[in-house]
Amino acid sequence: MLREAGNDRLIEEAELRRSLGEADLPILLMAQVQMTGDEALLDEYAPAIARLLHQGTPLPSSMVAHLHDLLAGILLKPQPLPGGVSPTLMQKMMSTCVGQNVPPEYVPMMMQDLGFDEPPQLSWRAIGARMPDFRVLVIGAGAAGLCAAIQLKRSGLHFDVVEKNSDVGGTWFENRYPGAGVDAPNHLYSYSFEPGHSWTRFFVKQQELQAYFRDCVRRHALDDRIHFNTETTSVIYNAPERKWKVRTHGPDGNREWIVDAVISAVGQLNRPAIPAIEGIDSFSGPAFHTARWPGDLDISGKRVALIGTGASGMQVGPTIAPDVERLMIFQRSPNWIRTRPRYHETVPVGKKWALEHIPFYRAWYRFQLFWSNSDALHAALQKDAAWREPQRSISRLNEDLRRDWTTYFEEKAGQNPELLRKVLPDYPPFGKRPLLDNNWFEMLARDNVDLVTDPVAKVTPHAVQTRNGSDYPADVIVFATGFQASRMLFPMEVRGSSGRSLRELWGEDNPRAYLGVLVPDYPNFFILYGPNTNLGHGGSVIFHLEIQVRYVMNCLKLMAEGRFCSLECRQDVHDAYNEKVDAAHEGMVWTHAGVNNWYKNVAGRVTANSPWRIVDYWAMAREPNPKDFLLA
Fold it and tell me: Does residue 194 come out as left (phi exceeding 0), alpha (psi in the -120 to 50 range) or beta?
C-alpha cells in the first residue's frame, strides 16, 4: 500500500493501477527512468512511443503492463529516489517523450522550468537586504503582475501592486462572456512554481482560471500588497531624484507614489477595440464588447448580432446559440480552425492522482505540452523564399498544415459547399491566430444561426445593415473585435528622464522595447508582455512571462550587487535589437502579403508578436549583460 503525500490515506494496489491506467504512458516512462536511472528503458520503449504519438498506434499490452509493474513496484515501496538527470540523459528523455529529436539547446531551459536545476529565485533573496530602501510599484494584478509580485516578495524588496479592477486575474477577470476559457492547455498555462494539480478540465473556463490566480495570492500572502480599484493615470520620472512619481486614482481619491522602479504589467489585451461603424450609438438595445459582458444580461430568446469571429467569438457563439432566438454572425475574414485532443474533456481522477503523487510526472507532462504546443511549430511559420505557391502557403511544412487543416474543414463542412466556401481561409496557416474548434461547425449547422460575410455598413436603432443593403434585426449586439494591442500602456501617461512621453516616442501604435522589456530614457521602468513578446506560434504566455520576470529580477540583482540606483537600456542596444526583430519578422508568416491581423500596426509593422522561438528568447533574456545598460 502507498500512503498519499500529505495525507494519512493508504492507496491499495488496485487503486494505484487504476490511476496508472488513466495516466499518459510516455510520461509514466519518463518518471520511471528518472526515478531509477534505467536509461535502457528509453531505447526499449522509444520506437513504440513514437508510433503512439505520431500514428496513434497503441503500445502493445505487454509493454503497458511491464511499465505499470515497474512503477507499482517503486511506488508501493517508497524509498529514496535518485531523481538527478544529466544534460545528455535529459535530451534523450525529452526526445523520447515527444517522439522526435529535441535539440540540446532546450536542455538548460527545461531543466530550469521543470525544477531539475536550482531555482533562480534563490539568488534573489539578498536583493532586499542590499537595497532596504528601494521600492517597486507593480501596475496590474493579472498573470504578469502576480508573477512579478511573488518574486519580489521572495527577494525581500518593498513593493506594492495597483490594480484598476476589483479583483485579480487581469484578462481572466474582465473576460466573463459565456464560454470564456483558455485555448492553451492549462497544465502548461500556469506558473511553473504553482502547477495546479486540481484542474477539472484540460482547457479550463474563466471562473476556474481566476480562482487559480486568487489561490496564488492566498498561497503567497499578497493580499495586503494589492490595492484594488486603483487606476494608474501617470508615471513620471524625476531625473534629479532618480525616482518615479506614479499618480493613481482609487477608492480614497488621488494618490502619488514615490518609488525607485516601476513594473508595468498591464499587458497587450486590456483595452477593447470597437470598430467605427456608422450609427453604432443609435442602437436601441445593449451593445458591448465581449470583455465588457453585462453580468445581468439575459439573452434567452433574443436576436443577437455577433460582430467578429476571432477567439472570443469562437467561444461565445456556440455557447449562446442554443439559447437565443437567432444568432447572426458577421465575419470579416475566415479563420483557420483546428481541433485539439482533450479540448472538451475533463481530467480523469487517475490523471490528477498521477500529477500530484508520482514523482516527476507533472514536470514531464508539462514538457510534453510545451513541445507540442509551441516551438515544435515554429519552423512551419517561416517563409521559404523558394516556395512556389506563396499565395496559399509559405513552405512545405506550412503547406502540410494547410492540407491537414483543410481536410478537417471538409470533414466538418464539406456537405455544404456554400458554407465551406465561406469558412475556408485563402491565406497561409498561422497568418492570423488559429482558433480551437469550440463546436463552431455544429453551431453553423443550426437553423437559428446565420453566417454573414457581406461587410457591415452601419447600425440602425433595431438592426445591423450590411453593404448590400440587407437588414438583420437584432435585440443585442456583441463585439468580438479584439483589443487595441498596438496602443500599449494606453491610456497611461508615461514620461522618462528627458520628459518625453512614451506616446510621443511610440506614436499611436508603434511600440518598441529591448527584449520587449526596456526602453531607453526610462530608467528602472520594466514592461511585462510588452512589444514583440506575444507568442504567435503557440505556447503559454505565462511561460514567456516567467522568462521576462526572471530578467527583471536579475536586473534588480545586478543593481543591488553593484550598488547602482538606476539601470537604463542603451539606445544603440535597443535599436540593434529591434532591427533584428523587424528583420526576423520579414521571414515570418505574419508579414505575408494580404494578411491582416491584430499583430500588426496600421503601417504593417508587427508590434505584438515575438519572431523568436521561446528557447531563443530564453537565451537572450537569461542574464542581463551589464554592457547593455547605463548604470548609475
Answer: beta
Domain identity same for 316 and 231: no
Could you tell me whether strands 463-466 and 456-460 are parallel, antiparallel, or unpaired per DSSP bridges? antiparallel
**CA atoms within a 13 Å half-sphere pointing along the CA-CB vector of 431:** 25
What CATH code is carried by the domain that includes residue 313? Answer: 3.50.50.60
Q: How many helices (H) and strands (E) does the chain have?
A: 20, 23
CB atoms within 10 A of CB 544: 23
Q: pLDDT of 292-332, one tens digit each?
A: 999 999 999 999 999 999 999 999 999 999 999 999 999 99
Instruction: Say yes or no: 55 and 150 in one domain.
Output: no
DSSP-derived pairing of the beta strands 629-631 and 567-569? antiparallel
At 626, which amino acid appears? P
Which residue, 295, 359, 302, 478, is CA-closest to 116? 359
Residue 560 Cα distances to 214, 523, 553, 632, angstroms? 31, 15, 10, 12
How high is the pLDDT of residue 6? 46
Cβ count within 10 A of residue 97: 24
Partners of 226 in the beta sheet?
161
- What is the pLDDT, as a whole number, of residue 271? 85
Spacing of C-alpha 521 from chain mean position: 29
Residue 11 has what pLDDT?
66
Domain of 61?
2-119+357-375
* 324 alpha carbon, distance to own chain's centre: 31
Q: Do 462 and 610 belong to one domain? A: no
Give CA–CA dist 222/465, Å, rounded: 50
Query: Using CA atoms, how far apart are residues 245 and 242, in angstroms rounded to an integer?
Result: 10
Number of domains in the chain: 3
Neighbours of 556 (CB within 10 A): 28
Residue-wise pLDDT for 404-431, tens only, equals 999 999 999 999 999 999 999 999 999 9
The predicted model gives 129-147 an average pLDDT of 97
C-alpha gyration radius of the chain: 26
